[in-house]
Structures are given as structure tokens and as C-alpha cells.
Amino acid sequence: MKEGNHSVVSEFLLVGLTSSLEIQLVLFLVFSVFYTAGILGNLLIVLTVITDSHLHSPMYFLLANLSFIDVWVSTSAAPKMIADLFKEVKVISFQGCIAQMFFIHLIGGTEMVLLIVMALDRYVAICRPLHYLTIMNFRTCISFVVAAWTIGIIHSLIQLVFVVNLPFCGPSELGSFYCDLPRFIRLACTNTYRLELMITANSGLISLGTFFILIISYVFILVTVRQHSSSGLSKALSTLSAHITVVILFFGPCIFVYLWPFPTVPVDKFLAIFDVFITPFLNPVIYTFRNKEMKMAMRRLLSQIWSFRMQF
Questions:
Q1: What is the model's pTM?
Q2: Residue 38 has what pLDDT?
């Protein structure tokens, strides 16, 4: 396609979810509630773990990092989507689109590694309890978190380094409410078949492989616990059920979006909504409502905040 017949694209049009004013109003209210609740819930977990000495353990340290990541999962796309709901023309600049994709894949890659670390933490805690604090010491946990962010950055850069210089000369309409790689590269004025394969391998196959590794590791933990003590199986299952739920919620949409052979079907937009709004909202619910120690720590924190307010 010759550039002489087309203007260079400097911004992209976002289709959004609907053009109905009534539905937009409902979506605005629903998404605002989920976004606000998710942000506050995850920040509350981070603050609780930091301030409560009873939670200064590897498991809660990793949980606080997961909540911190979930704050950024929502923030990478949700605010603009909510702000765009009532705009007739929804646009995002080329640089803004690249930045959004960078942060989405940075955060996604980091959370992927962190979930593996959390699975390892549960394995050591359940299968090797006497050596737990020796193996999962503070220095080890810090190293794991640093490694997770490093791998997230590498994962994101590997894809975007090939995308940022793609030629775009029209059309410029992205059939979604945010910038995602499958739709983005299909707008390029060049053959992107090899690039699509690379993205499928980098995001899709890695997500699928990591998902199966996590599920197999959880099954291995349960089998090991059952062999040593049948009475401890129910406790282990209760502990791991929260982790398994989070893994399914996180990897399900990722696997579909990046491995589905028709990446521009409308259903991927709704899966993206699930990733951006629902999962960051559900994670605090899953980890707090099923954890007595976390609920007690939150009550202590809220009680301290209330007492502090009453003094003034």
C-alpha cells in the first residue's frame, strides 16, 4: 500500500462497547462502582499487610504485591474507558496506544510470574512446613518480586519493539475500548503474519503453558498432602481454592484473546472487561472473605483509623 495515497495515522478511533445512551449510563455506573471498589479493596490489602505485624509473612507479602499489581491492571485501561463512554468520538494517540499496550503486557507478564511464585509459596508451606521460613525468607521473596517485574518488562518490550515501527496509513479504527495487540497490528499497512505468530507464542502459548503448570502444581500439592495426611486435604484444598480461582480468572481471558484464531470477534471485548474490572474487584474478595487472619487485621486497621479520626 503506497503512502502517497494515504495519510499517516497519528491517532486511533476506539469503537467502544455501545452507542446507546441508556446502556452507556448503566455501564458508567457499573464500571465506576467496580473500578472504585477494586482500587479501594486492593489498596486496603496493601495497607493492611504493611501496617499489621501479624501479616509480615511471605504469603501476605506476595498477596500485597498481587493487590498492588491489580491496582495497575485496572488503571491501565479503566479510567479512559469510563471517561470515553459519553464521548461521541473516542480517540487515542499513537503514542498513547503504544504506552497502554506496554503497561498492559508489563503488568500481565509480572502477574503471571507472581502467580507462579505464590504457587511455589503454597507448595513449600503445605509440603515442607518445617523449612518454610528458611526457604521463603524475606530476601528470597524480594528476589522473586524483582524477577517478576523484570520478566514483565522483557515480555512487554519483546513484542512492542517490533510493533512501534509498523507503518499505519489507514484505516485507524480499533474495534475495542482500548489498545490491544491483535487488533492493533491488523491495522498496519504491511504483512503482519510473522508478527502475529510471535505475539501468539509470546502471549498466548506462554499464558497457556503457565496456566497448565500452575494447575498441575496445585494437583501435585493436593496429591502430596493426601499421601501424608488425609485430614489435611480439606484444609489444603480450602487454601488452594482461592489461588486456583484467581488463576482461572486471570488466564482464561488471556488464553482466549491470544490463542483464538479469530482475534477480532466481539467476545474478546467482554473478556477484556472481565480482566480490567471484574478480576481486580474479585481478588480482594477471594483473599479476604476466605481468610480469617486477613479479616481480623482489616478490622484492627479500620478500628485504628476510626479511633484516629475520633481524636480530631
A1: 0.86
A2: 92
